[in-house]
Amino acid sequence: MHKDAAAATFFARVFYGIMHAFILLIVFTYDNDLKAECDNFALPCFVFLGLKTLAIFLFFTIANHQSIVSNSAELYEVSWNRPSQIFCEICQITLGFRVKHCKKCEKCISMYDHHCFWVGCCIGELNQARFVTYLLIESSCIWWVFISSFSGLVEGTEGYGAFVVAIALTVVFGVLVTSLGLFHFYLVSTCSTTWEFMSRHRIEYFKPYPKNVNPFNEGFFTNWKNAITRRHVTIWDLPQPLYIYPFDWCDNEYWTCC
Ligand SMILES: [Zn+2]
Ligand SMILES: [Zn+2]
Where are the membrane-spanning stretches (predicted)? Predict the structure, then answer.
């Protein structure tokens, strides 16, 4: 990995640790619902701690499931005028479709989504579902702390100021993590990536298809099943475009409204 990217990940992880320690210290020091449940060994406390442990575990293991492509993937059987494949000068391999070189990882990544400094690797084909799961579990923990902090927000008590800070922090991180989680849930559900979603107009292998068609989308359940069960990177091929696509009203063969 590039040394700047490694340094960014180090600082991101230190920040992650400090934030967790700070917020959990507030929650388990001053009186609030979550602390009361833990003091009484009630079930919600164990559910919260279980989710939090799972979130931390996922956060630190996403980088163990990278989607590195190390071999050339030439597709020879060309039955139609398929877009040509790209050669990565750095890795010295012919890239399959949906593979992109990451300058921070210094590797080619299958279904490149983005490079995440927090988890210290690229999100790609083999860790996209794990990344979404992490984000959604982390979201639920953040909003749990957010709600519980209100129960401790009693004016004149010791923890009042601390809970104001906890609420402010959980709102900021809650909105960020939840929106990222929901966006990636959508991407996995449609077998897409942030890179493809944002840059579709300049990705060569999408050119043969109308802009509302994702040739890799196999439907919600199959997309999720594949995202969860894949253990090796896929050599993606492109299906021959159909002559007639189910164009929608705004985007048809003859004109487009936008
Ligand atoms: Zn490369
Ligand atoms: Zn990367």
Answer: 7-29, 41-62, 131-154, 160-188
> In angstroms, rounded to a whole number, what is the distance separating the alpha carbons of residues 211 and 208?
9
Residues in CB range of 217: below 8 A, 6 or more apart: 190, 191, 192, 223
Burial class (CB in 10 A: 0-12, 13-18, 19+), 182: middle
Query: Residue 84's Cα: distance from chain center in Å?
Result: 29
Token pair 């995440």 is found at: 116
- The residue extents of the domains of the chain are 9-65+125-229
> How far apart (Å, rounded) are the C-alpha atoms in residues 251 and 215?
16
Q: Are strands 68-69 and 107-110 parallel, antiparallel or unpaired?
A: antiparallel
Q: Give the distance (Å) from ligand 1 centre to CA of residue 240.
A: 27
Ligand nearest to the CA of 102: 2
Distance 6 CA to ligand 2 centre (A): 10
**pLDDT confidence bin for 247, thresholds 50/70/90:** low
User: Cα(14) to centroid of ligand 1, in Å?
Assistant: 29
